[in-house]
Amino acid sequence: MRLNLLFSIIVGLVFSFESAWGSRLSVSGNKLIFNGVNFAWKFYGYDFGNGQYAANSKTTFEQWLKEVATYGGNSVRVWLHVEGDNTPSYDAYGYIIAPDRTGTLIPDMKLFLDTAKANNILVIFVLWNGALLRNQNSVNLFWDNSKLQSYIDKALTPMVKALAGHPALGAWEIINEPEGLVYNNKPDANSCFNTVPIANSGAGWDGKWIPMKQIQAFINWQAAAIKVADPGALVTVGTWSQYSQTDAFSDTRNYYSDACLFAAGGKSLGKLDFYQIHTYATFSASAPFKILASNYGLNKPLVIGEFSSSCSGGMTIQQMYNYAYSNRYQGAWGWQYAGGYCSDSRATQDLGMQQLKGKNTTSGLVNFPII
Ligand SMILES: *[C@@H]1O[C@H](CO)[C@@H](O)[C@H](O)[C@H]1NC(C)=O
Predict the structure, then answer these.
(1) Distance 239 CA to ligand 1 centre (A)
(2) pLDDT digits (tens, 9 = 90+) for 177-223
(3) Atom of ligand 1 nearest to the CA of 360
């Protein structure tokens, strides 16, 4: 969502983001609570671009958006380039030359947004997947600034400009779980780049050994480019756990603070608007379903971006959505409509969203028209 003056004049509702401490996403002064699911894909990496949307995903995604709306959902998190096998379009040297080869990527995204709008659903587009990144061209974007800049110039900026102001565009997520890529337990004199505090967290499971500073710069540059192309856009990152998203505990660190992203990439616009934590399995004492969002001591809203009752250590899906709503989180996106490891069934996720359908209390507003 974004500041939309026309919207505000006509219907008196306005999405806004207030950047002060205790900031919140809001709709006409009411805190907006994301109630939704991850799709996250229909055909992993091949949902958008090069004609894939029409061929693979459109019919299914349109049905799923209707289903989300039926059960009171207001948002979906969907993955775009994923590992980089289908989009963006790389040349033989690993530079990006276009969003995709055949020119359907942006129109595909717009079609998806149009259907989302018709169902009063906000879309969070996730650009990259750090949990698994096997395409060497995509890995190289963390190591070569000129390649990263080619992505920004030839794919990201055109995409963001073309979709700027679409009422169903909820946010851009730079990368899912970048901690898979990180060089863990690497000392650094600058606390922003030092991964020793999270040495025992499990981060670095991809075995790519990318220093945290390069991951932060990757995020900082793309976030800044999005803000330049569309100053009203919201930007986030999907961290795999609380370990990399808060300074509140001895074995955690907030690597995505404004100061750390700037220290790594040098772009003052390259900040996140809201934070996002994923959580699975046996929850440790500092995990999202164990404590209030405010216990993380963050100066930005916090969404629980992935979770499931099947990997929750015993909570029901109803308990999970209710917990997020009642404990100061900015919302919850269950994992995931396409199914698979640690996923709940669509029917289970629907029961979760249904818990929050129509809610409008001091905890926040869930359903509202997107115009
Ligand atoms: C939500 O509740 C507030 C406060 O009671 C009210 O002013 C507002 O109109 C409600 N919004 C919707 C969309 O129902």
Answers:
(1) 32
(2) 999 999 999 999 999 999 999 999 999 999 999 999 999 999 999 99
(3) 1
CA of 360 relative to ligand 1 center, distance in Å: 6
Query: CATH number for the domain including 183?
Result: 3.20.20.80
**49 found inside a domain:** yes
| Residue 303, in any domain of the structure | yes
Active-site annotation, residues: 177, 306
Percentage of residues in the chain with pLDDT exceeding 70?
94
Tokens of 279: 């959580």
DSSP codes of every residue in 245-276: T-SSSTT---TTSHHHHHHHH--TT---SSEE
Determine the average pLDDT of the residues in 89-108.
Answer: 98
| Domain contains 22 | no
Residue 181: inside a domain = yes
- In degrees, rounded to 5, the angle at the alpha carbon of residue 106 between the alpha carbons of residues 164 and 350 is 80
Q: Whose CA is nearest to atom 10 of ligand 1?
A: 360
Atom of ligand 1 nearest to the CA of 13: 13
